[in-house]
Structure formats: C-alpha cells, structure tokens
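Board notes, transcribed. Complex of a protein with phosphoenolpyruvate.
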Amino acid sequence: MTVELKGIPAAPGLAKGPALRWDPRPLQILKFIPADLHAERTRLGDARQNAAKQLRELAGQVASQIGETEAALFEAQAMFLEDAALVQKAEAAIDSGVNAEQAWHDACEYFASQLEAMPDETLRARSADVRDVGRRVFEILMGVKAAPTLAKQSIILTRDLAPSQTAVLDKSKVLAFCTAEGGPTSHTAILAKALGIPAIVGLGDAVLDIPDETLLLVDGTTGILASNPTSELVADFGQRILADGEKRQREHELATQPALTRDGHRVEIAANVGSVDDARLALQHGAEGIGLLRTEFLFLNRSQPPDEQTQYSAYRTILDLMGNRPVVVRTLDVGGDKEVPYLDFGHEANPFLGYRAIRISLDHPDDFKAQLRALLRAGAGHDLRIMFPMIASLEEVRKAKSLFAEAQMELRNAGRKMAEDIQIGIMVEIPSVALLAERFAREVHFFSIGTNDLTQYTLAAERGNKRVSHLNDPCHPAVLKEIQQVVHAAHQAGIWAGVCGEMAGDTQAIPILLGLGVDELSMSPRQIPSAKQVVRNWPLLEAQELARRALELDNARAVRQMVGGY
Ligand code: PEP
Ligand code: MG
C-alpha cells in the first residue's frame, strides 16, 4: 500500500529509487583504567591532531567541490578540537584516572548538552557539530571507520546526518536524503542544496521504519515522500522526472541570455557570492553580475582580521573574473549569528538585535577603512559598487560615507590607482529604512533589499528558529508593502532597487517582485537559470496585477496559494 509522509522541503528536485536505511552505528565507548596517564593524554592529543588534519582536508575538498560557505562548516569543526575548555575538561578527567575515550566522550557530551539547553537556535544547532567532532576523535582513538559504502544508487533514510557524514557519502550513489529530524536550515539541507541532491528533513520516526529496497518517490520541493507507490503513481512520477530534466536542460541552454518579461521588460539577474569559487559558479549559471558579495568569508575562522593586501588580492581575483559586469560588494557583516574569533563582545541576549555589521564597522574605523581601501584599489577598471549592511539610521549612512571619502583621500594622497565614480548603496533590511526610504534614497546610488533580515525584523520572527518559521515568510503582505515602498522611493529619486535575500531566487516570489518594480534580483548561482525562465513566462502587466492583489491578502500562505493558482 502506498504510504505518503510529509516532511520539510530541504533541497528541491525529484528522485525515484530504492530505500537504504543508513545508521551510523552508535560507538561503544571503550572504558578501562589506564596504567600511564601521560601516555593517555598523548593518545588524545594525537587523535585530536589527526582529526583536525582530516577536517581541514575535508574542508579543502568541500571548498573545491561544493563551495567555501559549506567548507566553513568543517573549518569551524576543526576549531572545536582546539577549544580550550573542551580540551581542559577531557585532560582533567584523564588526570583523575579515566581513559582517553571515556574522558573525551564525557567532555563532548557535557558541552553538547550545554549547547542544547541554550535559548538561541544557532547555538543549539552547534551541539550536533560537537558530537560530530567527538565521534571523529573516537573513531581515531578506537581505530574504527564508519564511512558507509553504497553498493548502488539509493535514497538514504536516516535519523539526521552530520555534515561530515553527508560530505563523505559517495554523491554519485545518493539519489536523495530523507531524514527523520532536522530543520530547513540544518547542515544536511545546506549541503544537499549545494550538491543539487533532493532532500526532505523532519519526516518523523516513521521514515526509519521503511524497509531497505522499498521503492520510494521523493519530491524535495513539496517535502512529500511516497513509499510503495502504485504503478500509476510511478508512471506519473517518471513523467515528471523526465519533464523536470528537460526543463532544466532548456533553462541551462538559455541561462546566459538576458531575462526579459513576455512584454520585453528587462530585469537584471545577479548572483550572491561568498567566495572565488562561487563567482566561477555564478558565471557558469548565467549571472549578469554579482548583486551581493558577502565579504565575511575573508574574516571568519581567523584570529586576526585580514590585512588590506590580503583583502585586495581576494577582491581583485573576483573582480577580474567578473570582467566588466557589475559587482556589488557588501562591507563586513559579522555579529548576529556570524562570529569572528578576534572580536569577542561577550554574551548578548538578542544577538540579531545587537552589535552587528555596520554598527561594528563604524566603531572600528581603521579596520573599516582598510576594507574600503582594499576595495577601491581592487575595483580600478571594474564596475565596482559598495554597500553597507544593517543600516538603521541616516546618521549611519552619512558616517559610513564620510569614512569612505577618507579612504578615497588616503589613497589619492598616496598616489594609488583606484576605482573612480563608484556607486554607494545600502542594504534595506531594517524596517526603519523601509519606512523612511524616501529620505535614504537621497543619500545613496542604490538600494538592495535584504529580505532575510527584513522579514525577521518586520515579523519579529528569528530566521533559523524552527518554532517561528511559519511566520518567517517574505511573501507576507507586510514585507511586500515595504518592498513596494522602497522601490517606489528609489524610482522617485532616480536610483535602482534590487532584492538580494533568498526571496529573489524563490520562483513563487519572483513574479510578485517583478510586479513591484524591482530592477535587479540577486540569488544563489544555481537558482539563476530557473529564475530567468520565470521572468520570461510573465508579462509585466500581469505581474503588476498579481502584486497588487498580493498586497491585499491576509498572510503569506494566501499569497503563495494565489501565485500557485496563476
Ligand atoms: C538578507 O538579510 O536578506 C541578506 C541578503 O543578508 P544576509 O543573509 O547575509 O544577512
Ligand atoms: Mg542580512
């Protein structure tokens, strides 16, 4: 009998194939009384070092095969291994007569459960990383290897996948991932999306009862998993897979063509990029420029901020790759959920409302100007545009612009070559800016609407917090109204307005954004071909009518239902 399970869509795409239940075997932690405590400490030290080496190698592989953002997960894990509190706790246990395996296990469990009890969702999610790192060290200490071997192409069913487990599975054999636990922003979801493998998470324990070899149909877009489908269902799904493949093929062929609506209105389609590899990917997928270069990748996992020259080289490489296409670079946006080891501000009750982004940059003018000088130098001969993140007030824009002018002056006085006539913009991600957009429009050359943050601040629903994720939808009419206002203010002032939050690549949201008059959409590179196709399918006038009706609805669900019915 066909059974359907509904989970959380985590990575889009369709897959048909046999089930394979994959359980990383729970490790039996060896327990004994060590004869030589010094040797035991050394054994743990060596295993940690070995694990760090493995993780850095894995980060290297992931960076080249998937992307720098995903690789950072493993860099961060390697850093856990050097965490002083964790190591001290394990070593103290060894000194009291406990063997390395048990000492390491207890220390990891202690910190993992502390993290699990945190009110902050991002910190809670780290407990899985601590256990993942813990497991890697046990495997080395006990000389076992849990890497699975997949005999044939299968749909992997599992409780939850740790990032390192997802990364070591043979991708050519994985048709889809289906997990009992996990949320839409879990690591499985991030990696699966980056790998282009369909995934459904949070399916509940029932998914673990499906016997191996059961035929499954996975729809990563709707989050529906069907087991033991009828022959009609299989035939129908087979058709959908075929049609989907043809559609993707067509989209790819047209990816480098511009995106014009049916009545000839052009929308610029750009990419969100967080590394040099991402920039290459963006070009392969038909990006007309970079709409958001997140510069954090240069700053995370470092004990010191990168110097001007290091930044210059990285920016230059990306700008050279992009040639004369526009490149919008965002100045450093750390704080919130993105920590940098060299900036320790202590505990904040509400990090997303705390010391973040431009607030930090304006307090550290020397570091901020070093980034601006590096950008100005790297931008010589290119269409470089600079934008400031998390702007809340007009004073912040003015202060940032005056530091920018100082950076220009310093380079000019030093006789350095630099970009001239560059556009300066701001991210619109705080409601205060959307409300006063008219005033902000007089200060800048462009707006880029960061709907990820704008949505969380408008609806007071923390991004990444599963329990409020039903509220966190940028299609909410309140957010749409803000976008409408921002675009209107921009056009009145003769400047352009783009969207660079996840919403820009959301095929349901794109027609509404078109209708609201957005000039540019910037998204993750792999979303570009299908986003362009959506633009081509809509006449502007109809999109305007759709947007007008969306603004009158009560909630995001109704908006999505309406778009779906068009
Ligand atoms: C946003 O907030 O929409 C955005 C693009 O910035 P980030 O996701 O980096 O906060
Ligand atoms: Mg943001």
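The mean pLDDT is 90. The longest strand covers residues 14-21.
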